[in-house]
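User: I'm curious whether this sequence folds into something compact or stays loose and floppy. Could you predict its structure so I can see for myself?
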Amino acid sequence: MGAIFIANYPRPADNNYKFDMDYYLKVHMPLQLKHHKPYGMRSYHVIQPEKETPYGTSPYVVQTIEFWDSVEGFFKALKEASQEPSDDIPKYTDIKAPFPIIGEIKGSWVDSTFELKH
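Assistant: Here's the prediction. I'll summarize afterward.
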């Protein structure tokens, strides 16, 4: 099965942060795809969690989920691909140390009638 990488941008305790969503969507994510697609990045999905939910305050400002062919491809991209996406981070956020998660997909299901619209 493939792999998923999730970049979690944590909400600062003082709720004081910069995150330029327009730049992130129009510049950074296409840059990420340009450099990582050759290594197996197949899609990305950017989520802006609701701040307040019935479960409490979201600990994240933004979460980005990337689908990859493999965990190995992801790590190869980190090692071999351009540093340009990493160097771009300060241009859209001042949130320090986004919490990353990478793992192999062990199971999944998608309704055959589901259409991803944005």
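Summary: The chain has three helices and six strands. The two ends are 26 Å apart (CA to CA).
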